[in-house]
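Q: Got a minute? One more chain.
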Amino acid sequence: MKKYVCELIGTAVLVLFGCGSAAVAGGTLGTLGIALAFGLSIVAMAYVIGNVSGCHINPAVSLAMLINKKLSVKEFVCYVVAQIIGAFAGAGLLYFIINNSASLDVATTGLGANGYGALSSVGLGLIGAILVEIILTFVFIYTILGVTSDASKSSVAGIVIGLTLTFVHIMGIPLTGTSVNPARSLAPAVLVGGEALSQVWVFLVAPLVGSALAALAFKALNKEN
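A: Always. Here it is, folded:
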């Protein structure tokens, strides 16, 4: 149970501070600032809950661990449930904060929800959004599998993973807002509703596809692991 509580807390922190930075201060922070907010959230949580749960805080990460037999099916389901609850807790707190601001509103900020077409800063289409999310998630998950497979790298794993999440966000934010995490995408979309909710399936499916491809590639290219 401790593992699942840690996953809930970690995902809530990621969504609150990552999506919150995009929603509340995106215009001030810019792409790099928002990317760092997501990445630093991972770094912080990795060194707090990593020794308990592994700090997945992302169903795509948990799926890769399931494929690589680091999680049982039961653990995978419990991890994902905890992550989704955590995402809604983080998005709910963000919703409450924005709702209590005199100059912000949920509809305008979008709670950091992902999107394509009219919701993309560059007008990226559906196929482009799917491809981008698969590629970004593949790179992110492949890095996680690589750095966590070597015990000698454990002291720097959190930093490497956080920086990798930062750099995929630098490219992805103007395109889709960067998901690479179904839980992070689901909660803001549900609370915002409208077009963000109608598009959220892309940000649930594509990251899981990218994760599965990364896990299978890692298994094939690192058979000794």
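A: The mean pLDDT is 94.
Q: Perfect, thanks.
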